[in-house]
Design a protein that fits this description.
Helices cover 98% and strands 0% of the residues. By secondary structure, it is an all-alpha fold.
Length: 97
């Protein structure tokens, strides 16, 4: 009878140890999940900020491109005007000779 009592008590001790180990592992898994969720949220926030920055940069570059195209058109118009003026001066010079 004494051996059954010792075996029962030893089984209870092992069962309690197993429950403690199970609880600790569940706590660790939960902690890792929360940590992963927080890390994922931080990463998502960083990505959103980078997308916002890239969007702003694209708008700036688009505005710069538009300004450059307007400037190129204005320079083209000036070149046409100067070309017409040069032709008129050359024609005037030929007629004086």
């Amino acid at each position: 009878m004494r051996s059954w009592d010792v075996a029962l008590r030893l089984s209870i001790v092992f069962a309690i140890a197993a429950l403690i180990a199970l609880a600790a592992s569940l706590y660790e898994v939960d902690r890792r999940d929360k940590s992963s969720s927080e890390t994922a949220a931080a990463t998502l926030t960083d990505l959103e900020q980078q997308v916002q920055i890239l969007g702003d940069q694209i708008r700036i570059l688009t505005n710069q491109l538009d300004a450059s195209e307007r400037q190129a058109r204005a320079l083209g118009s000036q070149m046409q005007g100067l070309d017409l003026r040069l032709r008129a001066l050359e024609e005037n010079l030929r007629s004086r000779r």
